Amino acid sequence: MRLAILGTRGIPACYGGFETFAEELSVRLVQQGGEVTVYCEAGAGSAAETYRGVHLVHIKAPRLGPLTTIIFDVLCLWHARKAFDVVYMLGYGASIFCFLPRLWGSTVWINMDGVEWARSKWGPMAKLWFRLMEALAMWTPDRVITDAQGILRHLQSRHARIPPASVIPYGATVVKEAPDARMLQEWQLMPGRYYLVVCRLEPENSVREIVKGYLQSGSAHPLVVVGNIAPATDHVKVLLQLKNERVRFIGPVYDRRMLQALRYHALGYFHGHTVGGTNPSLLEALGCGNLIIAHDNIFNREVAGEAATYFHRHQDIAQRIRALESSSPEQRDRLKTLAQERIQTYYSWEYVTDTYKGLVDAPLSKGHSYKPVMVNSARNI
Questions:
Q1: Which of 41, 83, 93, 327 could bridge 381 with an S-S bond, Cβ 3.0-4.6 Å?
Q2: Where in this chain does the record put each DUF1972 domain (predicted)?
Q3: Distance between alpha carbon 271 and the CA centroid of its chain, in Å?
Q4: At 82, which CATH number?
Q5: Omega of the bond prior to 231 within 30 degrees of 0, cis?
Q6: Hey, is 79 helix, strand or coil?
Q7: Which residue in 291, 292, 290, 297 sits closest to 312, CA to CA?
Q8: Which long-range contacts (CB under 8 A, 24 or more apart) does 279-285 make?
Q9: φ/ψ (deg, to 5) at 283
């Protein structure tokens, strides 16, 4: 079976969740005997043709602002139209063109990555485009794949027709050995003596609420916010006004080892995402055994279950922090164990790869669905 993965900047992963997903899945499928190609953005100079057994195709797209990504996806779809049994597009921003490989007999999948049109970073025209692309994604592929049951339910509530659908999550790894704590010296931090947020600084990620709740808690441990502060949007400017000696905005951290060290050694981890399904950042926090305080919505509950506590308002965050800091070592260890068991049971890369392999090998008409155990939150730490 020849599989092509489109919709990413390419591998090895240096950017976001889709790139990490493409790398982890493609390499593992190749190790199981598959033939996988990942489409990559062409940069200046030469580029490798393979990576750990995965074929790489580099496509250059003209730089036309917001249209660049759509044009890149279309060029990839056109290039892949004849050569593969399955063409897997990550994201639905170019779903209107995903019929192209089907004209040449390829099976097309689309990964419905969250409720993209609800994100505040998009203007009215972009939101309208994503609404249209979501609707067309119900017609142009042979199958849609969502990373959470909540996303599938969202599609079912909005569209009268849905193609064959599979729910397959992203994956993560369990961190079994503590990263070198000396890496924290970059930010003058001590293990177990700071709180952490890792996200894009956008309104739907609840950073403002997290900061307000943290400040209200009176905690003596600093809050570290990892996220790009450039360009300084109106929302970022509002956030930076909350900056003080306790609230530290340290910008993006691209080094995987250093980011893992930041996560692993945090006293607590905040996850404020309100839009989307299985968020890679939340999975990585679970894999590190973090004590997680997450926004209370169906997506986060589906992923974290009892391994997190939850908040609706910033006042809830202050209460969660006080409960965490007054908890016993045994209570904290229980939550850490639950977090890592959650990854091992439902979100290991091995599980994700085996599920995709089963889908590739199954007849087109056969449905396939991942069903995590839904449990109540641990309200008290």
A1: 327
A2: 4-172
A3: 12
A4: 3.40.50.2000
A5: yes
A6: helix
A7: 297
A8: 279/17, 279/303, 280/16, 280/17, 280/20, 280/21, 280/170, 280/172, 281/17, 281/198, 281/199, 283/169, 283/170, 283/171, 283/172, 283/343, 283/347, 284/172, 284/260, 285/198, 285/339
A9: -60, -45
Same domain, 240 and 93: no
Helix, strand or coil, per DSSP, at residue 39? strand
Q: What is the pTM of this model?
A: 0.90
Q: What is the pLDDT of residues 205-218, one digit of tens each?
A: 999 999 999 999 99
Residue 367 inside a domain? The answer is no
Question: Domain tally for the chain?
Answer: 2
Give the residue from 144, 167, 190 where a domain finishes.
167
Q: Do residue 139 and residue 212 come from a single domain?
A: no
Looking at the structure, do residues 259 and 283 belong to the same domain, yes or no? Answer: yes
Is position 380 within any domain?
A: no
Regarding whether 186 and 163 lie in a shared domain, the answer is no
User: What whole-number distance in Å separates Cα of residue 48 and Cα of residue 349?
Assistant: 25
CB-CB contact of 261 with 179 (8 Å): yes
Which range marks the domain in which residue 31 is found?
2-167
- Backbone φ and ψ for 106, nearest 5 degrees, come out as -80, 150
User: Tens digits of per-residue pLDDT, 8-67?
Assistant: 999 988 766 889 999 999 999 999 999 999 999 997 555 789 999 999 999 998 888 778
Q: How far is CA 277 from the centre of its chain?
A: 8
Joined tokens for residue 242: 């909350």
Eight-class DSSP state of 336: H
Q: Do residues 207 and 157 share a domain?
A: no
Tokens of 299: 């997506």
